[in-house]
Design a protein that fits this description.
The protein has a 4-stranded mixed beta sheet. It is globular, with a radius of gyration of 20 Å. Strand 2 and strand 3 form a beta hairpin. It starts with a helix and ends in a 12-residue tail after the last helix. It contains 5 helices and 6 strands; from the N terminus they run αββββαβαβαα. With 169 residues, it is an alpha+beta fold.
Length: 169
């Protein structure tokens, strides 16, 4: 896809959202059910069933997906798509790119072993390897815009309002 095609696809959406901002607010949903045999959750992805379970560092078998890995994979996916979209819009010559993320966890927190150990990632590092001949200032601009418009990165970076509820079934 080239910049003209991308802009042609997005222009009517942008205009609609400028004129009617409430149309831009869309609720995305995810759903899963617990496994009746294992400590696992079956997540409906829309394409397949993803079974998440305990990480081996917390007693899991390693056969199921780790939700921490899935968070990093989601970040990589979003950052990669955003990078490609921004590069396309800027007519940035990008021959190839690789996106990677890594995060540091202290499993003492999630296992309740040490109250001072956080539950969750202490640090997440997102990295890009770019095959391009573009000047550094254009690379800097590409990365700045990718960071700015990556939904998953910004969600992690600017903690959203969270709530938890339950109901009997």
């Amino acid at each position: 896809m080239d910049a003209t095609t991308l802009k042609g696809l997005q222009a009517p959406l942008k205009e609609t959202y400028r004129e009617t901002p409430e149309k831009a607010l869309i609720t995305l949903r995810a759903r899963g059910s617990i496994d009746d045999q294992a400590i696992a959750c079956k997540v409906e992805t829309g394409r397949a069933l993803a079974v998440a379970g305990l990480h081996p560092a917390t007693g899991g078998s390693g056969l199921e997906l780790c939700s921490g890995d899935m968070l990093l994979e989601s970040l990589v996916a979003c950052a990669g798509v955003t990078l490609k979209a921004v590069a396309t819009a800027l007519e940035f010559k990008l021959n190839d790119a690789t996106v990677s993320a890594e995060g540091d966890l202290d499993f003492r927190g999630t296992l309740g072993v040490a109250k001072d150990a956080p539950v969750g990632f202490r640090a997440i590092r997102l990295a890009f390897e770019l095959d391009t001949d573009e000047p550094q200032e254009r690379i800097d601009s590409l990365l700045k815009l990718t960071e700015r418009y990556c939904v998953v990165f910004q969600t992690i970076n600017q903690r959203p309002e969270l709530s938890v509820n339950s109901k009997r079934i």
